[in-house]
Structure formats: C-alpha cells, structure tokens
C-alpha cells in the first residue's frame, strides 16, 4: 500500500474515533466506516493504440469509483508514468471527502493511465484519449460518473473524450465531462477557480480570526495555475504578498511583490532564479520561503513540502494548503500543538471541483452563467463550507483538518444510512 493511500485511510480511521460518539448504533456506524474504506468499483484493464509506424502501444488504465451515496462519482483523469492503482484509489477516496466538505452533491472517483504523454505524438495522445473514453464509457455519464482533467490532461483531452463518449452512446451529453473549453460547454471562471476559492476561504478565516488584511503578509510556494491565481487574487483583496517561488527559486520583498509583473516574466519562459531583481528584492530558496515569519504560508506546489524535518522552522500564523497533501501527518500534529492553524487541502483547494460542479449544472440546464455569477456562487458555497468546519472545530476542540474530515465523513455516512446501504 503506498503512502498516499495509507494516509487517506488513516484519516478516515482516525476521524471515526471522534465521530462514533454521534451514532447510537455502533454496529451500523462501523459498517459504514468499513464501506468508506473500500471503493465501490475498480475498473482496470489494458488499452492500446497504433503508432505511425503501425506498432501497437499498450497502456494500463484505471477508473476507480469510491462512493456515490451523495451523488454521481466525480474526479479527474491523469496521464502519468507513475500512476498506480493505490494512488488512484487514494485520490478517489479523497475526492469523496472533498466533495462532501464543499457541500456539493457528488461522490469521489479518479482515473489514470500509466503513460508518459511527452513521449507521444499529438495524434497518439488523441488516440489514447479516445481509447480511454471508450474503455470507461459504460461506467460514466451525467448521472453516473463525471470525469475531469487532472495531471497532464486538459480541456482538449476532455473534448476528444467527450466526442468518443457521445459517438459510442449516440447522444449529446456535455455534462459527462467537466473542464471542457468554453466552446463545448465549459464554465467561465474555471481557470482561476482553485486559487479564487482558496482566497475566499482565506477571507472567511481572516474574518473569523479578526485579522487585519492590510497588515497580513503572505508567502506562496509554487507559481503554477493555483499559486499564481491565489497570489494575484489575495493581493487584489489587500493582502501583502511578500514571497513567491517556482521550482528554481523564490523571490522575497518585505514591501510586497507585483504579481502581474512576475507573471509576465514567467509567461516568457523565465525562471525566477534569473529574474532581474529590483531594489528590496532578494532570491531565496524554496526551503527559506517556508520559514518566513509571515501571517499566511501557502504551500501550492508539491505534496509533503512541510515535514517533521522542517516543521520546527515554520513561523507562519496559519498554513493554507493549496497543493494536495503538502503537510505530513507528523508535521500536522506538531503545528496543531504549537497553535498554528492548518487549513486543509480538502477545503482550501476545493474551488476547482466546486466550479466543475457549476459547469455540470450549466450543462444540464443548457443555460450558462456570467463569470460574476460563477464567482458569487463559489464564494457563497465555499464560505459556508468554512463556516461549517469552523463551528465543528470550536465545538469539538479539534484541528481544522480533523473538523473537515469529521464533517465530510459524517455527511457520507448519513447519506448511506438514509439510503439503507448500512
């Protein structure tokens, strides 16, 4: 069992210890927990394409559907050489928790193909996308399972998959996939949704903690889609973003950074280590960024960024997890003991899946929202999710992570009980 699956299952088992107090029928409760630990369906098999020279290329493919008590399965498809069944299973499980935390009517799923897409031609990538869509067609659909992009997949790949699905089923069904281009029913606001949602959570946290936004400094590790939009939108809201980083280096300025200028530099293919520094700026390492004495630390790059080795050097007042799994369990326990809040990834980066849900809703209606409407609904949904978790944290005297897990697992169990599954 790989580490990410082990961590996901341990979170559920750990939460069940607090959650069991809410249920009189302990036998039924344990039955529900046991069901949540195991996916409802594992679809796996080989798919093949023909290369230009006529040779057959074979790939291992997966689609794992975790739990649909709260609604259709939902989750991305990744194309990566390191995809494993355990990883896909873990991510499907975490998607169930994330959807439940956000309060959107989905269960979790995940898909993957063991492939290095950089070694495929564009035509081979298209063929692989089509074959994967055919492979899962029987299991997916607007009211069954709604896939989306993930690592190394994008709107173009979703478009190819949608076309393959519709050809095979003989009907138009744009709500089968989300993360599509606008021309095929994608949603406005989806590109920046994860970063935007994260800042809405940060604003709700600041209000709850009575933080003065103007004097709250922010350091963001990672300047991909999520890190960039989080930094940009946080700055627009009035936070002082003093540090950002890419994989090459970090840039620090105590007086604040101009995120748009840095973005233009990155768009031209530049690395921060080569950035022409202005007065007040200095280069720092990614490790040094994590140790800055800021109000808000935002790991938005890699998993396991904050570990038992470096957690003692963390000086932020709150850690906002915008990457998936950036804090190890040992580091998380240490931060809680030190009184440093950690806003967990299943809440703080749930803006992406929330706007995917809005895309699905728009597809089902055949009626499309303005960007303002998307952001207004995102703010409403994610602010309520934070409020629900904050209330549990206070009443149970537990961490935000345990409160988020408590809420999500309770919602799934309650849905299972109502359906008579347990």
Condensed summary:
46% of the residues lie in helices and 17% in strands.
Helices and strands: which structural class? alpha/beta
Q: CATH topology of the largest domain, anyone?
A: Rossmann fold
CATH superfamily descriptor of the largest domain: NAD(P)-binding Rossmann-like Domain
As residue ranges, the low-confidence spans are none
**Total count of helical runs of at least 4 residues:** 14
Q: Give the CA-CA distance, first to last residue.
A: 27 Å
Strand element count = 12
Q: How large is the share of residues in beta strands?
A: 15-25%
Identify the CATH architecture of the largest domain.
Answer: 3-Layer(aba) Sandwich
CATH class of the largest domain: Alpha Beta
Which term fits the overall shape? globular
* Average pLDDT for all residues: 96
Radius of gyration: 21 Å
Strand order of the largest sheet: 9-8-7-6-10-11-12
Q: What report would you give on this structure?
A:
With 422 residues, the protein is of the alpha/beta class. It folds into two domains: 41-183, Leucine Dehydrogenase, chain A, domain 1 (Rossmann fold, 3-Layer(aba) Sandwich), CATH 3.40.50; 187-422, Rossmann fold. Helices cover 46% and strands 17% of the residues. The strands form two sheets. A seven-stranded mixed beta sheet has the order 9-8-7-6-10-11-12. Helix 7 (225-237) links the parallel strand 6 (217-221) and strand 7. It is globular.
